[in-house]
UniProtKB/TrEMBL annotation:
This is S-adenosylmethionine:diacylglycerol 3-amino-3-carboxypropyl transferase. Pfam families: DUF3419. It comes from Botrimarina mediterranea. Residues 426-459 are annotated as: Disordered. InterPro entries: DUF3419 (IPR021829).
Amino acid sequence: MLATHISRAFFKLCHGNQLVYNTCWEDPRLDRVALQLGEGDRLIVITSAGCNALDYALDGPARIDTVDVNPRQNALLDLKLAGIRTLSYEQFFDLFGRGKTDNWEAVYTDAIRAELPEASRQFWDKHGKFFLGQGRRPSFYFRGTAGMFASWINWYINRYAKVRDDIEALLAADTVEQQREIYESRVKPAFWGPYIKWFMRRDAALSLLGVPRAQRKQLERYYPGGIAKFVEDSLDTVFSELPLKDNYFWRVYLTGEYTKECCPEYLKEENFARLKGTNGQPGLAERVHTHTTTILDHLKGADCNYSHFVLLDHMDWMAEHMRDVLGLQWQEIIDRSDDDAKYLWRSAAVICEFVDPITVNVGGKTRRLGDILEYNRELADELHQVDRVHTYGGFSIATLRRDGVSAEAAAAAQGAGVLGYAAGGRANKKTNRTTGTAADGGAQSAKNAVSPDALAHSR
């Protein structure tokens, strides 16, 4: 179809030579509960903006390999790693907390530049302007394609909806009840008009956020009202049901900067010190290594197995356009997995149907992934309920069982709840719609949800 062709072309244009993600939009607080990382563990993760790889490092795994086909994403993580090694905490927070510095040339040229790999050095030689705090996008967090979208949203808030003071009040609210009152009475009526709904349905707009047409189609297959309604319901949950005090994802998106009280873990002073190292001892950041390649090619050349895999949402696109390659990738994943390895991925799809039918060779036998992946659907549902980002339809946690999933585990994974959760998928609770049984798991209710307070102290 012409629309599909145009959408793919625009997506490629946005992503072909751009930094896409300037910050990670997956909540690592959930991941660390799900993964239970510790000494000796070896983790592979898609780089994105690198924030979460640094977050995982705080749990002390032996090695974290970050993989991304976009060299600009690895350049960003390389910049953070070099900054951790060479800068003071305040200098580092200026760059990645405030998103700007008054002294870029000295900080970059005198300290960071010599620590960068050549490809990353070439990128930042050209794009250091991202941190100058100048122009119409005066923060690093308004740069890149996702940052361009954030900048436009802030223009809309300031100039069209005219709710900047209300947004500031919302972020400063002490309780969820206060948030709800501000959001429902002042912010939502002004913000969520027909223009923004029309804009959110456009593939071009979603491409800036790294959301291809395939992901939108997967979500709309099961979500009443489609992408615009999904986003509206997500915002309702974030701003009226979950605490904003520590929601650094939406704070940086709405203001262009973090605060020291509301920021990713790697930007907190005590954690920066652990990542940097003290008294001549190497810091935890030295265990993080960047690779510009595909997961498939990295695993083919890897010299070790891995205990944990964080696959983000990249399989959504592969399932639509590269299903054969996705099968090859899973074969390499299984071959390079420790026994009882853990896998974590997200999906735009409320019901993720494309993973379990994939076949792989295990011990000389052809097996479906659905027969060797043991899902922890209850934990996925509990965590997904309190996801501070709240923009994914599905969240899956699985453990490798080479000898096959037990009958008891398979039965436990086939819950029969009414909210329509599948592998951690998020239902449209306002319509109380049951989505039925997915190929990689049954619908399951989200009962006994983990509280934000409990998660905050789970480290």
